[in-house]
Amino acid sequence: MSSAIYIPNDYRYDNMEFRRCGKSGLKLPAISLGLWHNFGHVDVLENSRNILRLAFDKGITHFDLANNYGPPPGSAEENFGTILREDFKGYRDELIISTKAGYTMWKGPYGNWGSKKYLVASLDQSLKRMGLDYVDIFYHHRPDRDTPLEETMAALDLVVRQGKALYVGISNYSAPQAAKAFKILKEMGTPCLIHQPKYSMLIRWIEDDLLGLLEKEGVGCIAFSPLAQGLLTDRYLHGIPEGSRASKSHGFLKKDAITDESIRMVQSLNAIAKERGQTLAQMALAWVLRDPRITSALIGVSTPAQLEDSVGCLGHPPFTSQELNKIDEILN
Ligand SMILES: NC(=O)c1ccc[n+]([C@@H]2O[C@H](COP(=O)([O-])OP(=O)(O)OC[C@H]3O[C@@H](n4cnc5c(N)ncnc54)[C@H](OP(=O)(O)O)[C@@H]3O)[C@@H](O)[C@H]2O)c1
Fold first, then answer.
1. CA torsion through residues 227, 230, 235, 238, sign
2. Which ligand 1 atom sits closest to the C-alpha of 300?
3. Eight-class DSSP state of 310
4. Residue 6 carries which DSSP code?
5. What values do phi and psi take at 56, rounded to 5?
6. Rounded CA separation 300/233 (Å)
7. H or E segment at 212?
8. I want to staple 307 with a disulfide (CB 3.0 to 4.6 A). Which of 103, 190, 301, 320 is the partner?
9. Contact between 85 and 102 (Cβ < 8 Å)
């Protein structure tokens, strides 16, 4: 239990921008916080707590989890549940909490992929770990080749009807897969709220056809890993620092992703950020948010200072076309 009692900042909504999620009634903060790394039992709980407190104080109302976040799997939800109980009691109605199922969670044939058996059981486990009656958004985490899409979408529809989730989403689905899922969900009367794809200056596949589809269908888009797990920040400008994600054995950013070529590219991007009066992290987030079809940029942070810095992406002047062209030249 933390010694100091947390009292949220009265002015927490003054500087956050909220964007409507597709054509739904729900607005999300332009910056949302994900708990994939830095919230597991391997991490320091007080640091996780300080990050969540600062996030809420900055107007970040949306926290994104998944059954398997940790390590060990499930521990991010457990820690989040502890902090919710101790610090955020009385603020549940100001929060949008999401979780997902789709990757390996437990042994045997019912702890992975997209069956109704797995999804329903997993959400029940997630609710227990977080100490919640319901989540705001429940996602299918990745497409499953072997389960009929009708069954997976029926599981999403079911949990909404059971009152265990208010809205549903999909993640990592291609545009054709997403189009099929949207149609099935619409026919069942549980429209898809949101798609969660990977999107950053370095990974741009959603620009081809997914963003157009989402706009047409009125589905929101929350972009994960907008900083390419830290590559699009000042973290690796001079190698791989101690304590960074690429330096940790359980980190998902592998050392071999930090090549001389990628560092040179990041240095060139950093020079443009400096000219704009931003840090590279701020410029990379502003770049993701330059497209109004992006509802929210879903960031990770390992310290409160990084959060403070990243939220500073809001409020800078928009990109000029010359700046966008220069960035494209560096990326190509
Ligand atoms: N649906 C999916 O399949 C999926 C997959 C991946 C992620 N996600 C979601 O997306 C969220 C974010 O993913 P991510 O953590 O990869 O996002 P990210 O924002 O691209 O990367 C976060 C990392 O960047 C570094 N960083 C952040 N802000 C910084 C700043 N201002 N200055 C310097 N370094 C900074 C930190 O690295 P250090 O740790 O090295 O300090 C931090 O851990 C996840 O938590 C999860 O909710 C979803």
1. negative
2. 15
3. H
4. P
5. -65, -40
6. 12
7. helix 210-217
8. 301
9. no
> Exposure pattern of 76-94 as b/e (b: 16+ CB <10 Å)?
bbbbbbbbbeebbeeeeee
What is the distance in A from the centroid of ligand 1 to the CA of 300? 3
Question: Which residue type sits at 12?
Answer: R
Residue 196 one-letter amino acid:
Q
At 91 the pLDDT is 98
What pTM does this model have? 0.98
Kindly give the parts of the chain with pLDDT less than 50.
Answer: none
Fold (CATH) for 18-230+288-320:
TIM Barrel (3.20.20)
CA 174 to chain CA centroid, nearest Å = 17
pLDDT of residue 2: 52
Q: Are 167 and 26 in contact (CB under 8 A)?
A: yes
The answer to whether the CB of 270 is under 6 A from ligand 1 is no
Q: Which two tokens stand for residue 275?
A: 């000219």
Any atom of ligand 1 within 6 Å of the Cβ of 63: no
The conformation of residue 198, written as its DSSP 8-state character, comes to B
Nearest CA to ligand 1 atom 21: 229
Query: What per-residue confidence (pLDDT) applies to 219?
Result: 98
Q: How far is 144 from 20, CA to CA, in rounded Å?
A: 29
Per the listing, tokens 């590559």 go with 231
26-44: pLDDT as tens digits: 999 999 999 999 999 999 9
Q: With residue 224 as reference, give the H or E element that holds it.
A: strand 220-224
- Residue whose token pair is 């486990």: 125
